[in-house]
Write a structure and sequence with these properties.
This protein is an alpha+beta fold. The chain has five helices and 26 strands. Helix content is 12%, strand content 27%. β10 and β11 form a beta hairpin. The longest helix has 14 residues. The N terminus is likely disordered. It binds 2-acetamido-2-deoxy-beta-D-glucopyranose (6 copies) and fe (ii) ion (FE2). One 2-acetamido-2-deoxy-beta-D-glucopyranose (NAG) binds next to loops.
């Protein structure tokens, strides 16, 4: 993947070397995380001929009244229909989707179905069924409340999950967290199939079966990471993001985007912008133009909480992927300050870190102003690439801890963001070693638009 690493080395780096925050004294046992074997319980294929598997949902429109249901059938295309309704026994509505498939080196995918349920009632539990004949499967989800400034809503934050025993522990901790996440904001790097020879895409299927127990029941909002590239020119695979874009559809057109890799959704009191670290983002590129038009559209009287998801962090004090997010930061950071983005969540670095509210927008390479400064209009940057994938923990930190870094710890875990109203959101990070309700780092966030002085 070396070709994808940007030439950050040529940029002077802006890191203050004093007055740092907390480096947690908690030290996790080291040692590699190993993938769960193919015959693990979490990878079990559901019984029945052509049974739908890898069922997953995500938001299906811009406002929260749509749900995009996806699933895979292995034996034959089967049905593209989703039956759904508000009563378990009476699935009175139906929607028709599409089916796709792809080949990757010598792997041929199953039949990948995508079907959007539209114009659902807000704040309502729906039951839905996929499959036909004897092998139907039923699941349920709850739609979010209507978009509004004081609507409480709870997001989970998971990144770089993979499919190791640690990944399973992270997902279990998320599911068992007493602060019940209603939607996951997923910050990229899903299956890590690319760790296998020829990116053995069977590991995309196992990942889909592993996470079904959560994502069939609540939407995960997808961000693409470097492990979604699946770029293998050495064995003839030259189309980046092929498995990911076939398997994980998102409602990008609803936000005027031209690519699955960057888009936005509104959900309850939050406006969520998803960016792609591994797509062009320089001036005049489609992603740049889209973001430039997107930020002014956010109405903070409607959605006070402006949240950005991006895989590669802009503020990262670990010696892993150090400065990789720097060129994207230089392109977009001044916009984030101008539009008072509240929070930026990233993954990529397999550890946890939370920043102070800082910006580094005065810096222009030659003026020497290379240290981030306190900035009340700036977002807090949070790295949650600690899902527990096969590559193991990032435990080598830059020393001393830079001033912009408020808290950092090399442990696997997940976080939750519990939005209370337009001014207050409670945020907590949980490490996998602890009990389900133990909190390892927490903070109250005050909204940048409604309570900027705090
Ligand atoms: C694909 O190629 C790999 C490596 O040669 C081999 O191990 C695997 O069995 C092949 N898979 C299929 C489906 O042919
Ligand atoms: C459904 O299951 C029944 C009982 O096991 C079987 O007799 C029937 O052939 C099955 N139908 C189909 C379409 O597979
Ligand atoms: C994964 O976690 C679940 C829930 O804790 C557990 O039931 C299952 O046995 C675990 N599987 C593996 C392979 O660790
Ligand atoms: C912003 O949202 C509020 C609340 O829904 C609405 O009253 C107002 O008209 C919107 N402003 C714009 C510019 O659309
Ligand atoms: C930590 O990273 C630094 C910088 O890349 C490197 O020089 C050092 O050897 C690393 N330390 C360990 C223990 O790996
Ligand atoms: C917003 O939520 C916080 C935390 O629950 C609470 O203290 C505050 O009073 C709420 N604000 C309003 C206007 O209700
Ligand atoms: Fe990554």
């Amino acid at each position: 993947m070396g070709v994808w690493v940007l030439l950050v080395g040529i940029l002077l780096h802006g890191v203050a070397l004093c007055n740092g925050g907390i480096t947690s004294s908690f030290v996790r046992k080291t040692g590699m995380s190993v993938d769960m074997p193919l015959d693990s319980d979490v990878f079990r294929v559901p019984p029945g001929y052509n049974a739908p598997q890898q069922v997953h949902i995500t938001q299906g429109d811009h406002e929260g009244r749509g749900v995009l249901v996806s699933w895979v059938t292995m034996d034959e295309p089967g049905s593209n229909t989703v039956l759904y309704g508000t009563s378990k026994d009476k699935l009175e509505f139906r929607a028709e989707g599409i089916v796709t498939s792809y080949k990757y080196y010598n792997y041929t995918s199953g039949f990948i179905h995508h079907c959007t349920l539209k114009k659902l009632e807000y704040d309502t539990t729906y039951y839905y069924e996929v499959g036909i004949g004897n092998t139907t499967r039923q699941f349920w989800f709850r739609t979010p409340p209507k978009v509004g400034p004081d609507v409480p809503y709870t997001f989970g934050l998971i990144g770089d999950l993979g499919q190791t025993f640690d990944s399973n522990s992270t997902l279990t901790h998320y599911e068992s967290n007493p602060i019940k996440g209603q939607t996951v904001l997923y910050v990229g790097d899903l299956s890590y199939a690319d760790n296998y020879p020829f990116h053995n895409n069977i590991r995309w299927d196992t990942w889909g079966r592993f996470v079904e127990r959560s994502v069939a029941y609540q939407p995960w909002i997808w961000t693409a990471g470097n492990h979604e590239l699946d770029f293998g020119p050495e064995f003839g695979e030259r189309v980046p993001f092929k498995p990911f874009t076939h398997r994980y559809h998102v409602p990008y057109r609803a936000s005027g985007s031209t690519s699955q890799l960057w888009y936005s959704v509104k959900r309850a009191s939050a406006y969520i912008i998803v960016l792609s670290s591994y797509s062009a983002y320089g001036k005049y590129t489609p992603q740049y133009q889209w973001l430039e038009q997107e930020l002014p559209k956010v109405n903070r009287s409607e959605t006070p909480w402006l949240i950005v998801l991006v895989h590669s962090p802009w503020y990262n004090s670990y010696n892993y992927h150090y400065m990789e997010g720097e060129t994207m930061r230089v392109m977009y950071e001044s916009w984030f300050v101008q539009y008072k983005v509240d929070l930026v969540f990233a993954g990529h670095v397999h550890a946890y870190e939370r920043s102070e509210r800082v910006s580094n927008i005065a810096y222009n390479i030659v003026n020497g102003k290379c240290s981030p400064v306190d900035d009340t209009s700036a977002p807090v940057y949070i790295t949650v690439g600690d899902g527990g994938n096969i590559e193991g923990l990032a435990n080598n930190m830059t020393e001393p801890q830079p001033a912009y870094s408020a808290f950092r710890e090399a442990s696997f875990g997940h976080a939750v963001l519990d939005i209370k109203n337009r001014t207050h959101a409670y945020y907590a990070w949980h490490r996998n070693q602890d009990g389900f309700s133990a909190v390892a780092d927490s903070v109250w966030f005050f909204n940048r638009y409604w309570q900027p002085d705090n």
